[in-house]
Amino acid sequence: MKPTVYAFLTILTLAGCKGLYSPNSQPAVNYSTFTIQGDSATLAPALDAFRAALGGPLNAPNSAPADSGRREINWDGVPAALTNVDTFPATFFNVNSKRGVVFATPGTGFRVDSSAFASINAALADQFAAFSPKKLFISVASNQTEVDFKIVGTTTNGLVNGFGVVFSDVDQSGTSGVDYYDANGILIARVPSPGQSGAHQFSFVGAVFPSPIVARVIIFSGQAALSATLNDVSAGGTRDLAVMDDFIYGEPQPVQ
User: Fold this and answer.
1) Taking the model in full, what pTM does it have?
2) pLDDT exceeds 70 at position 112
């Protein structure tokens, strides 16, 4: 997968804006975007509006596939043995805690971290805050995370009507964001993240479609992967580094 540059895209900063995207001469797809930046109290109403737009209740982990509703991931229930290591299983949220997603990355793995990634780079200790304390998520050796949707607890591909993610410490608008793809691999929406204006701030990016159409998303978190030597732009570095917290998405439905 080639890196995506968001810097020249228009940023929508009000929840519920209407989007229309027609890449590669494909038919335009209507969707609603939800993007906002600020502290946790500022984000809360936008996330509630996003949940309402998805429709239905929050379906509990390991519950059977449902005809409506949503699933959420906040990382905090991940066991200690799979925290602060670079070997978090890509299938954890479809096998161990069934929520209908499988991860992929051009990097070397995944990490759920409770140290704000200070164990990777001590300079990051005060860089990232957790939206839902206290664990955060990254792809290892990459800033790209692919989320593939499955009928919960199965290997059958599914479609969702929307997906959203909370980023921590997006300093510059457009350096993070989400690409949305349909079952044919066509890019149907691109939503860049707004930047934040203070330490330990958050950004939320989400899109909701009129019906289940999203087969997978690719999340771009910052301009580079975290490493032992790379510092964030706010700390004198050359790249805007960002990490992920909560995922919110519609209940995966069968591909028609």
Assistant:
1) 0.89
2) yes
